[in-house]
Amino acid sequence: MKTRLLTFILVLLSPFAYANNIATVSGAYAKETPPTSTTSAIFLTINNPVAEDRALLSAKTPIAEVTELHTHVMQDGVMKMRKLDKIDLPGKSDTELKPHGLHIMLFGIKEPLKEGMVIPLTLTFDTGRMLNLSVPVKKMMMH
Ligand SMILES: [Cu+2]
């Protein structure tokens, strides 16, 4: 019982213990949507500076009804999106969310995303830490 309480306290303290060694995000952007589309995606790179593995547990933005963590998998020769419970962030590495790979999926966008807009995004990590970001919308050239 005592051990369990101690573990609980350590879990509560862990976000502060890593205050100087926390995951950082760079290069975040959201994909501009055509006027008829209500789905989009956010891409970014997360740096985990500590040796321990971390994970991104969720992403939330008020501009979409549903926000999910996604990846792409090849299935019968076709690229398909799959929902993930978390995105693993290996220790001392960059994890890149990019087109045709890992991404933050937005469903039920309330108004079309246009280049020049900035949308709020909150990431929640397995340490319990939350990170608030301002994500610019960018037009994407698809080939
Ligand atoms: Cu997706």
Structure, explained:
There is one protein chain. The relative contact order is 0.26. This protein has one helix at residues 2-17; strands spanning 24-31, 40-48, 54-60, 64-75, 78-84, 87-89, 93-97, 103-109, 118-125, 130-138. It contains 1 helix and 10 strands, in the order H-E-E-E-E-E-E-E-E-E-E. The chain is globular, with a radius of gyration of 17 Å. The chain starts with a helix and ends in a 5-residue tail after the last strand. The protein is mainly beta and 143 residues long. The chain binds copper (II) ion (CU). Copper (II) ion is lined by residues 41, 70, 81, 103, 105. It comes from Vibrio breoganii. Keywords: Signal. This is Copper chaperone PCu(A)C. Residues 1-19 form the signal peptide.
How do you describe this structure in short?
The chain is mainly beta. The chain is built from one helix and ten strands, in the order αββββββββββ.
Measured on Cα atoms, how large is the radius of gyration? 17 Å
| SSE string | HEEEEEEEEEE
Round the mean pLDDT to the nearest integer and report it.
89
Shape: globular
Bound molecules: copper (II) ion
* Poorly predicted ranges: none
Number of strands: 10
What is the CA-CA span between the terminal residues? 59 Å
| Helicity range | 10-25%
InterPro entries: LpqE-like, Lxx211020-like, PCuAC_sf
Pfam family, one: PCuAC
Keywords: Signal
Signal peptide: 1-19
Task: Give keywords.
143 residues; mainly beta; ten-stranded mixed beta sheet; binds copper (II) ion; PCuAC_sf; Lxx211020-like
